[in-house]
Amino acid sequence: MKKIIYPIIVLFSFIINAQKLPKNFVYLKDIAPSIRIELRYFSNNNFIGKPIDGYNSNSLIITERTAKSLKKIQQELLKKELSLKIFDGYRPQQAVDHFVRWAKVLNDTIMKAQYYPKVKKKNLFKNAYIAEKSGHSRGSTIDLTIINIKADEALDMGSEYDFFGIQSHPSYKNISKKQKKNRMLLRKIMLDNGFKPYENEWWHFTLKKEPFPNTYFKFLISEN
Question: Where are the domains of the chain?
Fold first, then answer.
């Protein structure tokens, strides 16, 4: 009996892990393996405080066109002993639905002090921090920063990734010259390589000519 069940279990596990992506989507590590990846929604270190639905792996999935643009940016940064570090790319609609459910549970605020200290949770929809659709689900939007390779630490951008507040606006003035310079370094290199910024988040960019401007995908994030 064991000899029959065991190979079936192994095969089933392989099928789950060996996901075939939709056409024009890739795993970033197959295009630009030197880019650092830390999917915050695969961990407890995010504004909800637990892994988010749809994130079954720390595997960055993105449209192929976006991946190739990121590779060009990485090649430029490596010459300066810098590297991209990515917090999120393609985001399944299931994850967005998780955010919406969480936002409606007003007493669940375990990460408030870190991520939204001055924002009332009941106002997250009104202030557009949470929405029922995300550009990330179209596959060509990316959340990222720049790290110093030698120091193995992120450049100081003046606010934490995913911080809900005006401090995260790219044009926010009340930060140091160095922090402004770091933000502008990221912004310029992204703009120069075909991305458009989001004016409320210094880390958020979308490919200008995204291949799926009206499609919101639901496939899960898992290993290739």
Answer: 2-207
User: pTM higher than 0.70 for the full model?
Assistant: yes
Catalytic residues: 201
Query: Residues with Cβ < 8 Å from 209, sequence gap 6 or more?
Result: 65, 194
Q: Angle, to 10 degrees, between the axis of helix 177-191 and the axis of helix 64-78?
A: 130
Note down pLDDT in tens along the chain; length 224 residues.
445 444 444 433 333 445 689 999 999 999 999 999 999 999 999 999 999 999 999 999 999 999 999 999 999 999 999 999 999 999 999 999 999 999 999 999 999 999 999 999 999 999 999 999 999 999 999 999 999 999 999 999 999 999 999 999 999 999 999 999 999 999 999 999 999 999 999 999 999 999 999 999 999 999 87
CATH class of 2-207: alpha beta
